[in-house]
Amino acid sequence: MASPSISLSFLFICVLFLGKGVHQLEASHHIFARYQTSPKIFHKSLINQAYRTGYHFQPPKNWINDPNGPMVYKGIYHFFYQYNPKGAVWGNIVWGHSTSTDLVNWTPHKPAIFPSQQADIKGCWSGSATILPGGKPMMLYTGVDSQLRQVQNLAMPKNLSDPYLTEWIKYRKNPVMAPTPKNKINASAFRDPTTAWLGPDKMWRVLVGSRVNKLGLAILYKSKDFEHWTLAEKPLHSAEATGIWECPDFFPVKIDGNKGLDTSARGKKVKYVLKNSLDETKHDYYTIGTYDAVKDEYFPDKGMIEGDSGLRYDYGKFYASKTFFDSEKQRRVLWGWANESSNVKDDVQKGWAGVQAIPRNVWLDKSGKQLLQWPIKEIEKLRGNQVKWPSKILEGGSKLEVTGVTAGQADIEVGFEVSHELEKVEVLKEKWYNPQLLCSKKSASVRGGLGPFGFLTFASNTLSEYTAIFFRIYKHHKKHKVLMCSDQSRSSLNKYNDNTTYGVFVDLDPAREQLSLKSLIDRSIVESFSGGGKAVITSRVYPTQAIDNQIKLFVFNNGTSSVKITYLNAWSMKKAQIS
Ligand SMILES: *[C@@H]1O[C@H](CO)[C@@H](O)[C@H](O)[C@H]1NC(C)=O
Ligand SMILES: *[C@@H]1O[C@H](CO)[C@@H](O)[C@H](O)[C@H]1NC(C)=O
Ligand SMILES: *[C@@H]1O[C@H](CO)[C@@H](O)[C@H](O)[C@H]1NC(C)=O
Ligand SMILES: *[C@@H]1O[C@H](CO)[C@@H](O)[C@H](O)[C@H]1NC(C)=O
Ligand SMILES: *[C@@H]1O[C@H](CO)[C@@H](O)[C@H](O)[C@H]1NC(C)=O
What we know:
Jelly Rolls; glycosidase; Glyco_hydro_32_AS
């Protein structure tokens, strides 16, 4: 193997103009060559920028995208990520690496995996960790080879006594999976291997995302020894009209309780989750189902919807996610990339792009029909000043400021009771069945019967800017429908941002239960959880007036009926040690 310094500089020259002269095989992402910034121009003020997050994971500078190979090894959490060491746009991709003891504070290390072989010389793309019996981690990742084919490679730690695993070596005979004329795999659509799992026949199995025309595929490979992999007769699963499946993730969940399971776990009380990231819409959708480990087939449960209108981890900016089993705490933890919503010029100017959402615990809801997600408990360590309200009525058309916390870097939780006002709800019309469209039609400024009520985050003094996260209640076939929205239409006076409003119907019954809403607010991101984790929306926002200590936070009710706040807790959030 070449030394890192030689390989890295070689990589930069090689990859900078990837995309030129590519005919049959296309790289799936653009390279903005003319925007490539050089390390020299980064200013010292980088960390003091208004939009730079205080407790979300990001490296000191530059572009990041997919989470890679998360795992825990000898009590140390490892996080790898797609990283451009040369600029704030996609390109020159290597695996950045950081470690942590609490998933909150991080120590950066040098890149773990970078182009150095024929099989990855044009890029080291996403992949996953598998811990072999006995504890040795193995990393499967996508390499872009010298002919620009996507292939799957194997890497392993050099020194297993080093808990930080700073040195990685590659299998000499990479690639371990490749497209051939015989297997007819599309060499431009073959990427992002999952964590592998062991079947009853003691063979390893792994999925790789792909497509045939519009058919999305989770291609299955099997291996006895983790080095020699053979293509299975058929994919584990596929779905029409979904396009390429990126970053597939396949894992078991317990039907009872929130404990996580090792990826190889099986049993009667176990269901399976298959998640795919849809390149065409940039959404992570999942289904819940059963897995036949003998036939090697996955069957989504009745009623599960494949594709963009199916269940999603997050109905906002959240993509290319990946879970891992945290054997230290017996939980399954989800990482996901929260892309910027600003334009490329602004990204280059601020010198960085992309953050990771706060890691989330995921488990099966007791209905069995969806997952629940909640920020990992450890994040509560950062809670500072607390504000607590007694129960109070919030009249229609009113708002209350939440003072006493740093509104731009906060954690806020509230419970709403509306059962006394349910006769005021509007009827849901058929043309409003698409929740995202409904949220953008009925923004926070459109008064309804019951709702909108929720938070105004990143609000400026005069409300010239705010990001509203709220509920609206509708009646539909004698039942109630709870709509959750994150409205970006007023987030920023800067018109060059993606201001798409997000929305989802949450499976809650306002006649019988409180509606809970929690937001993690962090300078240019707000992650909002409703119904105890039944629905999540992440938004990226860049206010021009509501910045730093000018940011305000409100609870608002712009409906015509009153709502009761049953509790409100808010905390200032301290800065985490990240870069
Ligand atoms: C392996 O890591 C251990 C623990 O950090 C260290 O003491 C040892 O010197 C390392 N071995 C080599 C060959 O680098
Ligand atoms: C192969 O993959 C590329 C990239 O996703 C796509 O443009 C092309 O249409 C695919 N070919 C087929 C036959 O699916
Ligand atoms: C990232 O954000 C930019 C700007 O909003 C958008 O053009 C792009 O499609 C996004 N990509 C993903 C993967 O979300
Ligand atoms: C509440 O509704 C009124 C009337 O539509 C509107 O002027 C005001 O901006 C709304 N408030 C918020 C916070 O959107
Ligand atoms: C949202 O973005 C679009 C496209 O850039 C722009 O035309 C529109 O004015 C923006 N809407 C608001 C409310 O800022």
